[in-house]
Amino acid sequence: MNATQRHAAIAKLDRQGLSSKQIAERLGCTQRTVHRARAKRKAAGEDWTWTLPEPDEMAIERAAAGDQPPGLTWIERRAAYALCDQWGVPARITASRLGVTRQSVYYARSRRAAA
Question: pLDDT at residue 98 above 60?
């Protein structure tokens, strides 16, 4: 796959709402390559096609309850953090339910408190 084909494939996957990590995994390139392709499109004046994917509310509730579905997006994971906090779930249990470290839970809480 040459650079032009790769940039076209990145633009196509962007329109589907995939993250740079997901695009890089599908195309077998680095996330930096994806970011550069996006920057080149933006500099060329093309429409910035990437939008945040819509979160799946059922996936968020399942993850917060401890039944984490595969392919949870970062938006859904953040919403699951917030839902666990809303329910008063301790950081240790939230971390085990979402498959992350306690430090990730603390970081998410401080990031949300700063916003």
Answer: yes
Residue 8 token pair: 């076209």
**What does the alpha-carbon distance between residue 99 and residue 80 come to, in Å, rounded to a whole number?**
12
Rounded-to-integer distance, Cα 98 and Cα 109, Å: 14
pTM, two decimal places? 0.57
| High-pLDDT (> 90) share of the chain, % | 41
Closest CA to 79 of 53, 58, 98, 60: 60
Lowest mean per-residue pLDDT among 43-47, 74-78, 103-107: 43-47
